[in-house]
Amino acid sequence: MNETKKGQPLTLSTIQVEGFKSLRDRTSVELGALTILAGANSSGKSSLIQPVLLLKQTYDQPYDPGPLWLGGPNVIFSDVEQLFWSTPEQQKAAFTVAIASVSWGVEITFAANGGAAEAHPISIVQCVWDDVRINIKHIRCTPDIAFSSRADGSEVAMINKVIRHRATLIPIDEEEEHKVPGPWNDLPLLMRHLIHDSTEKRHLTTETQRAQRKNQYIY
Predict the structure, then answer these.
(1) Residue ranges per structural domain of the chain
(2) Residue 206 has pLDDT above 60, yes or no
(3) Are 33 and 110 in contact (CB under 8 A)?
(4) Phi, psi (5° rounding) for residue 55?
(5) Nearest-CA neighbor of 133 among 96, 102, 101?
(6) What's the pTM?
(7) What are the backbone dihedrals phi and psi of residue 98, each rounded to the nearest 5 degrees, phi first?
(8) Residue 184's pLDDT is what?
(9) How far is C-alpha 114 from the geometric centre of its chain's CA atoms?
(10) Average pLDDT of the residues in 175-194
């Protein structure tokens, strides 16, 4: 079992999803040593699990694929619009996935980018690490235009520089240009070990993927 530096196990204890596929409203499940999801077809079982699989495969890629990698191997979406809850009359503009371990939690909100000129079809518009809320002010390719506030709405906690690290937003030391200590350092390890694949399959390199390697998208 993987552990944090404090010796606490890196396991998921809670998953919450809102606005993703069939889940219009926030839906939460507490995870135990063995958790079984049961329900009728189209009741939301896959909609609860797939956002976590999207996070995992984004961190599993050998390069930075952008805020979310939609091309497998765990789950594949051909169009970003497939991610959002919708009816013939309306559609959610964003979806949120929140996960928690025994020692920390993170909530990430994703929205579709408008227009073909955008670098990536989806972006992170908000990230909440425990009690620090990080909001993107300008989505277009810049690493440091962001601000933060306390999640309870109290006084702004000054984080001078925020970068996107794959599927999350994290603060960095503006002078040293490195990540500051925090729970965000545990998330990649947790995601990469969430599902063990003994075959260690790797994607074939395509022209699209080679182009993406040249663009380490930062919003």
Answers:
(1) 14-130+182-213
(2) no
(3) no
(4) -60, -45
(5) 96
(6) 0.77
(7) -125, 130
(8) 85
(9) 19
(10) 78
Whether the per-residue pLDDT at 98 is higher than 70: the answer is: yes
Q: What is the pLDDT of residues 37-69, one digit of tens each?
A: 888 887 889 999 999 999 999 999 999 999 999
Q: Report residue 204 as tokens.
A: 């074939």
Q: In sequence order, what are the residues at sequence separation of 6 or more whose Cβ sits closer than 8 angstroms to the Cβ of residue 48?
A: 15, 17, 23, 27, 29, 37
In this structure, are residues 137 and 145 in contact, taking their beta carbons and an 8 Å threshold? yes
Instruction: Judge contact between 141 and 218, C-beta under 8 A.
Output: yes
Both tokens of 140, joined, read 């277009």
Alpha carbons 45 and 61: distance in angstroms, whole number: 25
Q: 205 pairs with which residues across the strands? A: none
CA 169 to chain centre: 9
Counts of helices then strands in the chain (DSSP H, E)? 3, 9
